[in-house]
Amino acid sequence: RREGIQILSYSPLGAPHKVDKYIRGVQGVIGSEEAELRRSQLSVLDHPATHALAHRHSVSPALLALRWHVQQGFVPIPKSWDKEHIRANGPGPVASFGIEDAEMAVLEAMDADVRTVILYKKGTSSER
């Protein structure tokens, strides 16, 4: 940012389908209860802090996460084929509220240093 380069956030909602796939894969190994605990650690949309702040603002966890990106100065580019999700998470709804500094700090403290979106290099993985 200090160089004046705009940051784009692809999959700013953390690729929930990849978290779901991971949870399904580990349930047999660690048990359903432990797997569900991991879901809230891995998925911003399932984290209790996200739910609490979204409820406070009367918005969805997804909209809260997108607003966080905007307030950080990022350009979020969520992926969806669902027209209702596209409308609900569009520029108008994202701009309709703000997140206070103390709330931003709560969201930033959620960082578990886990990335659910893997960048594939040609020839390194056939899974997409």
Could you explain how this protein is built, in words?
The protein is built from seven helices and two strands. It has 128 residues and is mainly alpha-helical. α3 (48-57) packs across α4 (61-71). The longest helix is centred in the first third of the chain and has 15 residues, at 16-30. Mean pLDDT is 81; it is low at 117-128.
Task: Please tag this protein with its features.
mainly alpha; two-stranded parallel ribbon; 7 helices; 5% strand
Helix content: 40-55%
Mean pLDDT: 81
- N-end to C-end Cα span: 30 Å
Overall outline:
globular
Quote the beta fraction: under 5%
Q: Uncertain segments of ≥5 residues (pLDDT<50)?
A: 117-128
**Global structural class:** mainly alpha
Query: What composes the largest sheet?
Result: 2 strands, parallel
* Rg from alpha-carbon coordinates: 16 Å
Strand order of the largest sheet: 1-2
Secondary-structure element series? EHHHHEHHH
Number of strands: 2
SS summary, helix count: 7
Give a short overview:
The protein has 128 residues and is mainly alpha-helical. It has 7 helices and 2 strands, in the order E-H-H-H-H-E-H-H-H. The chain has a two-stranded parallel ribbon with strand order 1-2.
SSE arrangement:
Layout: E1 8-10, H1 16-30, H2 32-42, H3 48-57, H4 61-71, E2 75-77, H5 83-88, H6 91-95, H7 101-108
Parallel strand pairs: 1-2
